[in-house]
Amino acid sequence: MHRKLLFLLALLLLPALALADTTITLTFTGDVTLGGEDYLRGDPESFQSVYAENGPEYFLANFADFFAEDDLTIINLEGVLTDNEALQPMDKGKGTEPGAGYWFRGKTEYVKALTSASVEVASLANNHTLDYGEAGLRDTIKTLEGAGIEWFGTYDKHQNDTERFFFYEKDGVTVAFISLYWENYLQGNPDGCGAWLSQEIKAIKDSGRADAVVAILHGGQEYGRHRTKPQKVFTAMAMKAGADLVICHHAHVVMGMDVISNRSAVYSLGNFCFGGNRSAYLVKSTKKNPVQDASPALIVRAVLTFGDDGSYKGQQLTLYPIQTTSVDRNGADTQRNDFQPKFITGPLAANVLHLMQVDMNYDLKDKVNRDLKALVVDEENKLLTMDSSDGMFSLTLPYLPAE
Predict the structure, then answer these.
(1) Torsion angles phi and psi, residue 151, rounded to 5
(2) What confidence score (pLDDT) does residue 186 get?
(3) Exposed/middle/buried for residue 1 (C-beta within 10 Å: 0-12, 13-18, 19+)
């Protein structure tokens, strides 16, 4: 009888033991620019004018509750936050006059748009955080830290204090976040940042400093339809070194994803709240398709699971189609971006999934990726039958256990 009682108690404890697993919920968005180009500040349709009229809570109002649900919301902050008007834009090889390039900055108070919506972390490895030199980057870092927002990013092997990784700890489990701008990757160069980063990821995992690693690349062809070789090379490097999740942005449009050794790689999330575009739908006269639709975008929520000993056990991703403006396209080639992204469903969400699956037309030899593409296509077709795009759609992908 005593043994039977112990056995019954053990059975009762099994659900509790299962609940001992630790989960870390991470939400990733695409490019965020709080501000824009200096010469457009007075334009009534600029980010600066919209902020002055509506205040900080306006921009991410549709996501504040959603972001509050997770452990971390991680954005790519593409631009400078500074109140130093003496700072001048950095010459990018074509001069610094309006039209010669893009330099993004906003006031330091614009960080309130992030804090009002539970954004906790910003990646700073991209092609705009140095638009106003190191002084502008340091002002941005100071602004984020003053607002309680963590940051991370790598440019030159952590040569100074404007570069770092970010380590997040919860219930004894640690996740490391690293990010890199693709021009600093220097693929194939043994002295380049890519080779160094590979060693760093491996060292982090081997030393036990982190139980999982998230690797972020700011790279890819702007307004391209498919992942590029540098994106694929970076992903392969990061995964081989021990990364558990790869996220990419920079292209301003949505791309596809892969599952590699039961780890996920998402190749472009598109934009999010992007002050760099006054129009949500851009005209590029030099392109075969002159209208480059930068409005469809993607948010990825990843749930990482760890055992009670801290060991990584697996991950599950949920995809949320969004658009970068709250006003749906009216048929015109250009249309104002109101800088207030929103969730979408129906045909608009179907378009986001379509942009994903056209970048998943690789040789589908392995069953996991073949089934993944089939799932995305099936959900796209279902969404196309809906009458309205108002509301939220989410697609939860199959759980990927650690191998």
Answers:
(1) -145, 160
(2) 66
(3) exposed
Contact yes or no for 147/111 (Cβ under 8 A)? yes
- pTM to 2 decimals? 0.92
CA 61 – CA 42 distance, rounded (Å): 24
Whether 327 contacts 314, CB under 8 Å = no
- Tell me how far apart the alpha carbons of residues 338 and 323 are, in angstroms, rounded to a whole number: 11
How distant, in Å, are the alpha carbons of 111, 347, 373, 377, 388 from that of 381?
39, 9, 12, 6, 14
Each residue's pLDDT tens digit, 106-119 = 999 999 999 999 99
Q: Which two tokens stand for residue 286?
A: 């030099």
Q: Are 179 and 219 in contact (CB under 8 A)?
A: no
251/287 Cα distance (integer angstroms): 15
C-alpha angle 386-390-391 in degrees, rounded to nearest 5:
100
Model confidence at 291: pLDDT above 80: no
Length of the chain: 403
Over 80: is that where the pLDDT of 289 sits?
no
Residue 348's CB is within 10 A of a number of other CB atoms, namely: 23
- Can you tell me the distance from the alpha carbon of 225 to that of 358, in angstroms, rounded to the nearest whole number? 8
Q: Residue 93: pLDDT above 80?
A: no
- For 267, the token pair is 């190749």
Question: Over the chain, what is the mean pLDDT?
Answer: 90
223: left (phi over 0), alpha (psi -120 to 50) or beta: left
Query: Tokens 């970076």, residue?
Result: 234
DSSP 267-288: --B-EEEETT-SBSEEE-TTSS
Q: Measured on CA atoms in the order 36, 327, 397, 173, is the torsion positive or negative?
A: positive
For CA atoms 302, 308, 310, 313, give the dihedral sign.
Answer: negative
- Give the integer Cα–Cα distance in Å for 254 and 359: 9
CA end-to-end distance (rounded Å), the chain: 40
**Which residues, including other chains, have CB under 8 Å from residue 276's CB and lie 6 or more apart?**
31, 33, 36, 37, 78, 79, 102, 104
Q: C-alpha angle 358/77/168, rounded to 5°?
A: 95
Q: Which residue has the higher pLDDT, 51 or 190?
A: 51
